[in-house]
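Folding Problem: From Residues to Backbone Shape
Fields: amino acid sequence; protein backbone structure tokens
RECORD BEGINS BELOW THIS LINE
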Amino acid sequence: MAWILLLLAGLLEVVWAFGMKASDGFSRLGWSVVTLIAMLASVGLLALAMRSLPLGTAYAIWTGIGALGAFLVGILVLGEAATPMRLFSAALILAGLVGLKLSSGS
């Protein structure tokens, strides 16, 4: 269950990262509210997941899901560049996340 909570927390991190961009520096109320709610929910779910997962593993995977998710949203939704070096770097992050999960023992 902790891994599911951590996945949801990471996905909500993607939501708040996109929401922060869409809020235009918190100048758009609707997106600002979405951002703040997603932030609180993401951190709350991370805290619940950390009840049974190691700190280093949980935090690294949470931020990694957020980083990779925001990276993909940037490319797929916002039209950011998908250069070979950027894609390779994202693949390295993914490899690190998989390595942390496989070595966590939970």
Notes: The chain has a mean pLDDT of 95.
